[in-house]
Write a sequence for this structure.
């Protein structure tokens, strides 16, 4: 588990504490399909559909797919934020 001094902690508890998450392949944001990428809410790593170097293609997102968390940050903060992963999450959605 990450320490309180972890540089990735920037007040995310205001909107991510105890939320339900889906585990899935990244796809363009439904409400704005011109949006071509998102960033991990913690490390700022980039999520994209395109296969480019150093981008994430699978991770955890809020039910509305607005906020994304990479696999490593999910593992580092899952207990601290008490996340629930919804059944039916898909890696290939």
């Amino acid at each position: 588990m990450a320490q309180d001094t972890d540089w990735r902690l920037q007040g995310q508890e205001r909107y991510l504490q105890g939320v339900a998450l889906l585990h899935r392949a990244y796809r363009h944001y439904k409400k704005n399909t011109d949006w071509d990428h998102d960033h991990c809410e913690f490390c700022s790593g980039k999520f994209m559909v395109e296969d480019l170097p150093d981008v994430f293609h699978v991770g955890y997102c809020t039910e509305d797919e607005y906020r994304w968390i990479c696999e490593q940050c999910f593992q580092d903060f899952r207990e601290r934020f008490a996340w629930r992963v919804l059944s039916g999450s898909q890696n290939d959605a």
Observations:
- DSSP finds two helices and seven strands in the chain.
- The chain has one domain: 17-85.
